[in-house]
What we know:
The chain is of the alpha/beta class. The protein is built from nine helices and 30 strands. The strands form seven sheets. It has an eight-stranded parallel β-barrel. A six-stranded antiparallel β-sheet has the order 3-2-4-9-6-7, with no helix packed on it.
Amino acid sequence: MLQYSMLYPKQSVSRRTVSMDGMWKFCLDPEGKGTEIGWADGIPQADLIPVPASFQDFYTDKDTREYAGDLWYETDVFVPEEYAGKNVAIRFGCATHRAEVYLNGVHVASHVGGFLPFMADITNVARYNAVNKVVVKINNELSETNIPCGKTKVLSNGKKMNSPYFDFFNYSGLQRPVKLVAYPKEYVFDLTVDHRINGRDAEVSYSVVTTGEHPVEVTVYDEDGREVAVSQGKEGILHIENAHLWQVRNAYLYTFTVRIKDEEEVLDEYSEEIGVRTVEVKGKDILINGSPVYLKGFGKHEDSDIVGRGFHIGVMKRDFECMKWIGANSFRTSHYPYSDEIYQMADREGFLVIDEVPAVGLFESLMNFMEASTGKKTAFFAKDTIPELLENHLRAVEEMITRDKNHACVIAWSLLNEPETTDEAAVPYFEKVFARAHELDVQKRPRTFALIMNSLPDTCKCYHLADVISMNRYYGWYLMGGYEMCDAEAAFRAEMDKWAGKDLDRPFIFTEYGADTYAAEHKLPSVMWSQEYQKEYLEMCHRVFDSYDFIKGEQVWNFADFQTTEGIMRVNGNKKGIFTRQRQPKDAAFYFKERWESLPLNHKSK
Ligand SMILES: O=C(O)[C@H]1O[C@@H](Oc2ccc([N+](=O)[O-])cc2)[C@H](O)[C@@H](O)[C@@H]1O
């Protein structure tokens, strides 16, 4: 069985989960000698550090914050006697960017890719009714053979440094919850659902994978706990009469319970909350339950003070409250799949999510700036690193879709952010990635990728593969900013006119547009970086959006200010937030609230 294909860990009559979050031992390994000198058995001189969290922002010295290389975590976990005879595993929400896991000195798991969960099966290695030592070796170096892309430099003092081909800070470590899980030998390994609406009723086709031959029963309960459908067998169709559909910002979640039965005995039971809805692209529209929607929302990051990219349940709650207040209905998980809990909350709150794989930096340049807008070619897809990169990319697509396929909130897969698309060599690479997503998703959700500034109607070789065309555009910021705004608008319209001329009969959305804004800066008349300029810039973009009927969404960059690599293009972070990093509104937030509360859900469609 695949290590990564797993249902989110939950308790039930047959399953146990115990949180392993808390203070773990932690140390850096700049010489990369830990494995050789036996750290798998236990790490030396360890500091204590919170899990989940990025390690970088706790410390007060730069060498730690900027550290590139191996880092080690260790904790003790008590495995109860009652788990003996079951499958026992440790589930890591993520380990950024690659990990080796040891239990009592024995290697139990490896994982590459920093933003998706994996399991370490410890059934045969664990000591039962005893304390067990868990050691995790993580490496946070960037390369061109793994996503996200970048490189590792060595400075003249011998220290390594990450040099990302993207702007967000390379936060790393055990950034998401870690859980000890126990489940029966014969267990529910996977559940997949697909929805069809039939008048007032819904038909949910499902398939269940188990590790044994005993019969399977699937029961659906409504929000009041009433049984509304039941079906026998590993595959089948659940008929829900008078179905309560999951709607945008008006969610309804049924509980789907899968039971493996031996006569009357329940061998395993697993429940998941699932919204019943359909997603489809038809002509220039994105349809949810057959009705057109206009996306209003954000590109986001998992990013906050102190914990960095670490999952924090309070930050998640505040983000959703801010998004509800402002009248948003959607977000993109730029530039990596987020922690599971965020999709659960989006399901509950009725948000539409564009789920993005960590394929960012597929364009060689320092932080992706400037050069990208000049039309520079880096022949990225012609490099000899491409076969290995593709393999890692395809696996991330597979792990993301496997993890997120049942979430009602997920309405599209974003398969790359701002790759180089001006070279023919990109085409076969894109074809493989797009084909894999289509093949893996039974719901056949629309696939997209975010087009960088120089991916233009006459230069982009890959847009034909996207079911929804997602544009990242910075006219009036990176191009023709400030007093040149009138030319920026003209150039923006000229590009959109060319797209219109192609008559693609497909929806376009804006997945990025934005202007860096210092929350403390006011200026009349405006200058770039002032709050007044951010609003003028946004008004210009919205004038353009509102002029084209095929534009079916706007996700401004970014929800909040976020930490980046330092450099002359960033003032201690990217300041394009509509909210500050502390999640307080800039002036533009009030402007968005007014606009989004007045735009109907079917804006520009009938
Ligand atoms: O710069 C930004 O704020 C954001 O824009 C995007 O990157 C660009 C950078 C420069 C240019 N350009 O020079 O045209 C275009 C795009 C990235 O997707 C995003 O991660 C980043 O934070």
